[in-house]
Amino acid sequence: MFDDIRPYRNDEVATVIKKLINEPALQSSIASIKLPSIHKTVPKLAQLIVKMYLKVRSRKVNSIDDIQQEVAKYLYHLIETSCSNFSYNGIDKIDPSKPSLFISNHRDIVLDVAFVNLALYQSGITTVEAAVGDNLLNQPWVSDLMRLNKSFIVKRSEKTKRAMLTASKNLSSYIHHTLSESKQNIWIAQREGRAKDGIDKTNSALISMLLLNKGKERSIAEYLEELNIIPVAISYEFDPCDRDKAKELAAKEATGEYVKSENEDFDSITRGLVGKKGHVHIEFCDPILGDFEDSKAIAQAIDTKIIANYKLYDSNQKAYEVLNNTPVPAEENPLNNRLQQLTKEQRQWLLTMYANPVFAKESLKS
Questions:
Q1: Strands 101-104 and 186-189: what pairing?
Q2: Are 38 and 163 in contact (CB under 8 A)?
Q3: Assign residue 191 a region: left if phi > 0, alpha if psi is -120 to 50, beta otherwise?
Q4: Which residues are CB-neighbours of 78 under 8 A, at least 6 positions away?
Q5: Distance (Å, rounded) from C-alpha 286 to C-alpha 100?
Q6: Contact present, 351 and 322 (Cβ < 8 Å)
Q7: Is the pTM of this model over 0.70?
C-alpha cells in the first residue's frame, strides 16, 4: 500500500543501504564535501575512502531509528558550526498522544524539516515523516536516501491533469492514513518551492489536496480535528543562499525567466547545510481547528499564525529600514557584507527578502 511514495521500512534498510554504499554518484557527492582536495585531484581515491567509511558506519545501522540517531548527530554538528544559536518554543501546544500534521514556511530545501525534527527529538516527541517533491529526486539514489530518512514522495512531475489528480488523491489518502492509522507525525511545506522573496504564503491548492480524502459525509471542522494541523514558523537570521536567491529573482524580473544549472539544487542544499545561519528559531503554533468555508480560508489562517509567530532579527529590521529610506550606517547593517558585489537590482531583492517578514507583520496590524 502506497509503495511508490512511502518511506522505507525497517526490513528494507539493509538492502537499500548496501545499494547506496555502492553508488558512485553518492560517493562522489560526499567526497566533494568532506574530501574536496582529494576529490579534485584523485576522485577515484576519494570515492573509495568514502565507500570504506560508509561500510564501517553502516554496521551499526539496522533500522530507521538508527538512521535518525545518526542524522541527529550530524545535525548537532551542523548547528555547532553554522548557527550562533538554535531555539524553539510552543512544544506545549503539541499533544504527544495525537499525531500532528506540521505545516511550516519554506526557506531551506533540507533544513526546514531537519530543525523541526531536532526540536521534536530533543523534546521526546516522535519525529516526522517529511514530504519531498519528486522534482528534487532526479537520481534514484537521492530518492533512496530521502526515503530512508522517513521521507515520502510528492509527485509533481505527472504529465497529464488526470495523472496529477490521481497522484493528489493518493497523497491525500496517504497523509490521512499515516496520521490516523500509523499514528505518525507528518511535515509538509506550506508551498512548493522555497519562499525566495521572504513572503511566507500557504498555497491553498495544498489544503485542497489534503481535503480530497475528506468525504462528503464529514464536515471540514471534523476533518481538521483528524488532521490536527499545527503551523510552524521557521526563522533564520541569515540565509546562506540569499545572494543566489537575489540573483535569481533579479534575473526573473529582468527577463521573465531563470534557468537553473545542472547541479544547482544540490549546490543549494550543500550551501544551506554548511553556510552560516546565525540564530535559527522554531515556533510551534496553536492547531488549526474549527469550521472554515474552504481551503483558502484555512490557508489564510495558517498564514496568520506563521506570520504572527515569525521571529524577527536585526537583519530583517535593518533591511526594512533601508527600504523605507531610513538612514542605516553600513557598519550597523548586518547585511552589509552580503550586499557587496551585487548589482543594484540584486541588492534590492536581497534587502526585500529580509524585509518582507517585517512588512507581513505590519500588515497584520492594519
A1: parallel
A2: no
A3: beta
A4: 273, 274
A5: 11
A6: yes
A7: yes
Element (H, E) at 210: helix 204-211
Give which of 109, 155, 128 is closest to 260, Cα–Cα: 109
366 has pLDDT over 80: no
| Pairing state between β 229-236 and 101-104 | parallel
Please report, for residues 43, 49, 204, the alpha-carbon distance to residue 30 in angstroms, rounded to integers and kept in the order given: 11, 10, 37
**Nearest of 184, 177, 160, 182 to residue 212 by alpha carbon:** 177
Give the pLDDT mean for 41-60. 91
What pLDDT, on a 0 to 100 scale, did the predictor assign at position 296? 97
Over residues 214-262, the pLDDT tens digits come to 988 899 999 999 999 999 999 999 999 999 999 999 999 998 888 877 7
Give bridge partners of residue 102 from the DSSP assignment: 187, 230
Q: How far is CA 250 from the centre of its chain?
A: 23
